[in-house]
Every structure is written in C-alpha cells, then in structure tokens.
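Action item from last week, closing it out:
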Amino acid sequence: MELQDLAAIATVIALVVSLVSIAFSAKRYLGIREREQEKERFDIYHALLKSVSRGTDEAGPLKLVSQIAYINELGKYNEYASTTRQALNLLRKEWAEKEPEQVKKPLIEAIDNVLADLQSRQKT
C-alpha cells in the first residue's frame, strides 16, 4: 500500500467519523427539542385547565365566551385526553350545581361537545 492510499483511507475514515458525530449531535438536539416542546405543551395545557376551572387568568375574570373557547382548546390535547375527560366531568358536575342557568348551560354544552369528541376519537 502506498502513502496516497493510506491518505485516502484516512480521509474517508475522518469523513465517516465526522458524519457519525454530526448525526449523533443532530439526534441529540432533536431529542432535547422534542422534550422542550412536550414541556411547553404541558405548561400551556395546565394553564388552560387552571384558567377554565378558576374562571380567571392572569388578566382577570374570564368572559363566558373565553371559558368556552378554553374548554374547546383542551380537547385538542390528545396526549391528556383522560385527564381532560376527568377534569371536564368534575367541572360539569360543579357548574351544574352552582352556576346560574344562563352561565351553566353554554359551559355544559361546550363540555359535552368536547367529551363527545374525545369519545369518538378514542374509538378510532
């Protein structure tokens, strides 16, 4: 084997090592990014759930339309479907007992719609 052959082999090996290193770094970055996005989704979900259940957010009391929108938004988090069903059922019961009719009717309708949607998605 000549010196040129050894140099070519060394170059190929260096290239392969570099590519493996880049692939490993990319995989690691994507894993970290995925975990960050999962945490961000959880934080948003938790804030929505807290706002709906309290009837307030950081800006103050929620209007009825905002609560309905938040309830509908909770249904979009498939990874928390069972928690959403449980929380909405508890809120439905609480609001049915405490809220005035003009408030509870639209809230309960929104809850029922989200629960029906979650149920239909679970079957498929």
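Closing note: The helical segments are 3-54, 64-74, 81-98, 101-123.
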